Amino acid sequence: MISQTYGEQIYAGVLGKIIGVYMGRPVEGWSYENIVKEFGKIENFVAEHNGFPLIVPDDDISGTFVFYRALEDNGYPKDVTADQIGQTWLNYIIEDKTILWWGGLARSTEHSAYLRLKQGVKPPYSGSFEYNGQSIAEAIGSQIFIDTWAMSNPGNPERAAKMAREAAIVSHAGIAVEAAVYLAAIEALAFDIKDVDELLRSARKYVQGEYGEKLLKLVDDVVEQCNQAADWRQVRDWIQENHGYHLYPGNCPMVPNHLAVIMALKMAGDDFQESISIATSAGWDTDCNAGNVGCLNGIRRGLDAIKHGIDLRGPVADRMLVVSS
Q1: Is there a contact between 39 and 30 (Cβ–Cβ < 8 Å)?
Q2: Do the Cβ atoms of 13 and 293 come closer than 8 Å?
Q3: Which residues are CB-neighbours of 120 under 8 A, at least 6 positions away?
Q4: What tens digit of pLDDT does each residue of 209-235 get?
Q5: CA distance 156 to 187
Q6: Cα distance between residue 25 and residue 255, in whole Å
Q7: Neighbouring-strand partners of residue 139
Q8: pTM score of the predicted model
Q9: How confident is the model at residue 269 (pLDDT cuts 50, 70, 90)?
Q10: Backbone dihedral angles phi then psi of residue 208, each to the nearest 5 degrees
Q11: How confident is the model at residue 201 (pLDDT cuts 50, 70, 90)?
């Protein structure tokens, strides 16, 4: 049994995730310049402004909560495997219709991994450099879907990190896997640790190898920028100059988006709404980044923090659509 406090934090994490996704989704794919021109800074939902409904199916939400079924379907093992998670993909995804961005082989990371699984290629090869290439294997997706591994292991970062690693290698490799593991460990730790810098330090030991070392160097660099900056836009400019999309292969690389998540976490302090506002206003993969930040700060700060400020919970009304077979 989990404690009542943990239960409330899990609820806040789920709510924070969906609020972040719904805030970021309408400007996904927009350039930073267009976001600034149209909105300046996004502090509330803009779906209606863009002619979209607020509550819609979204791959970031569906994947997060469908892939978690690998635990339920296998009797909640403490050592869930990548093979079991890959089989969950095959069991619940409806090809070309649900959960994933169906952008095509060698263009969409998850679509590529799904096709490998369907061909009988097992993890970690289904997400490997060898089969899919670096630009596909090191895209953002592994980070998007990790929140449930942390929320099913509150206060247990070691097991959260292990599950996140098994989930990540179904579709990704390299630094993308280590970024997913790092964020999952941070979220699991956030059930008990509230200080952002302590979270960032304590989760370091769960990343591995040369890609883990590379990730931590990037984290250190962006944290240093945050500590020196007076405004988050200064940090955003630094990320763009040194780690923008133009410096990495692929259409949605992990690195700039992971750094945007760290930036939003650091520069917003304890302000939940400010954190998802930064993650959305900064551009790049806005719904993914705001969703991860919202989940993490939902866990860390709780339901009261979500309610502080603009009413973001009312329009969402605690609703999400999870679409699978």
Answers
A1: no
A2: no
A3: none
A4: 999 999 999 999 999 999 999 999 999
A5: 10
A6: 20
A7: 253
A8: 0.97
A9: very high
A10: -135, 155
A11: very high
